[in-house]
Amino acid sequence: MKKLLYITLFIVLQINVFAQSKGNKPAAVITDYAFRINQLKTGNRLVKVSLPAMSVCGGAVDGYYSGGNLVLVNARHYAEFGFSAQKLLIENDTIKRIDYTQHIPEWAKYEQKYPADKFKFDQTKMTYTDTSYIILFTNPITFRKWGKEEKIERKKITPSLQKSINERLACAQDMKNELNKIVQQVDSLRFVRDLPYICGMEFNELANCGDRLYWNVVMLRDNAIELLIDKLDDTTLTVAPVPYFGGNYSVADVAFTALTEIIHTIPTFALLAVPFDEEGCGYCAYWQHLNKNFENRQAFKTAMHKWYHANKYNLEWMESDDFYSCDCKGAHPNGGHFVLINN
User: Fold this and answer.
1) Given this model, what pLDDT does residue 6 score?
2) DSSP H helical ranges for 43-147
3) In the chain, where are the structural domains located?
4) How distant is the alpha carbon of residue 331 from its chain centre?
5) What is the rounded distance in angstroms from the CA atom of residue 103 to the CA atom of residue 127?
6) Number of Cβ within a 10 Å radius of residue 227
7) What φ, ψ does residue 89 adopt, rounded to 5°?
8) Would you place residue 19 in the very low, low, confident or very high pLDDT band (cuts 50, 70, 90)?
9) Which of 87, 121, 179, 299 might form a disulfide with 99, Cβ 3.0–4.6 angstroms?
10) Strand, coil or helix: what is 129?
11) Residue 181, H or E segment
């Protein structure tokens, strides 16, 4: 019973037990925990959430969740000719490790060697500061830094170094807050009161055409696809009625409807492993199968998870005002949708 729920719980417990297995060696515990989280990420066993817009301090940010908890953040910030990247390891809402890398052009050295009044700019002659450091939040904090000219490891943190660490922590907290807003936005689907059925969009605004909460999630596009898939066994009922078939949408049903509006080529009935009722009530086969028992919903969630991860790199964005989940007309809030293309 509830096989997927137990698997998820086992993963979370396994992470916690593994992280506590070397309690007398804090640095080793953090390193082992980082290895385990990376294994889960590689195996598509974490839920990825991305920021739709650039983070002020982190740039492009991806967060990874396990059991509803943020455990990993990857951020990349690209500037002219250079970049910075950071990775946060998180346990129980506490940052355990920060990896930070800078690849920044050395403009002062370049301008001294090739002054602009004598030389035409040549990017190939630019040198860079390749600096990386790791902060382990042990007690005391362990700071490791290396680059072209230095390699240090410190446990006695100077005031200037503490200032840099505090800046990293402030940036980390900002990214955590930004990611959690996306999670909260998807969680708000339980408050949806109405889904679009037959309606029209006017001047790119929603005009009595479904709940704004629903469309706000649809407009997250691929930034929250995995989070929506994670909702496919949430049987919490909303007050939104199901037209024609009766009853109310569950959070899982709202999440899947949003997925079909983002990706127009999901093979729903192949994933359900039941035929479309061509001679009877048509789409009612979806409702009958999923409402029969919780195991069917979990199997559908597993099938959707496998399908997405097998095909995510073959999903292509298509500009369009076509709607999938409703008989709606006008400008689509997303201006398009994803379709599965051939390999």
Assistant:
1) 39
2) 107-113
3) 49-185, 193-340
4) 27
5) 10
6) 22
7) -105, 125
8) very low
9) 87
10) strand
11) helix 159-187
Between 234 and 206, residue with greater pLDDT: 234
| pLDDT tens, position by position, 297-338 | 999 999 999 999 999 999 999 999 999 988 888 889 999 999
Residue 140 preceded by cis peptide, ω within 30: yes
For residue 154, give both structure tokens. Answer: 């410190």
Residue 228 has pLDDT above 90, yes or no: yes
> Which tokens go with 53?
């817009």
CA 167 – CA 164 distance, rounded (Å):
5
Measured CA to CA in angstroms, residue 5 lies from 49, 66, 295 at distances of 20, 12, 10
Strand partners, 105: 128
Place of tokens 């998807």: 186
Query: Do the beta carbons of residue 133 and residue 145 sit within 8 Å?
Result: yes
Q: Which residue has the higher pLDDT, 251 or 208?
A: 251
Q: Which residue has the tokens 């946060």?
A: 88
Lookup result for tokens 């790791």: 134
Q: How far is CA 268 from the centre of its chain?
A: 23
Please tell me the predicted confidence (pLDDT) of residue 202.
58
CA-CA distances (angstroms) from residue 53 to 178, 179, 259, 337?
Answer: 10, 11, 20, 18
Identify the residue whose tokens are 């599965």.
Answer: 340
Residue 308: which residues within 8 A CB-CB, separation 6 or more?
A: 225, 226, 229
- 146 bridge partner residues: 132, 151
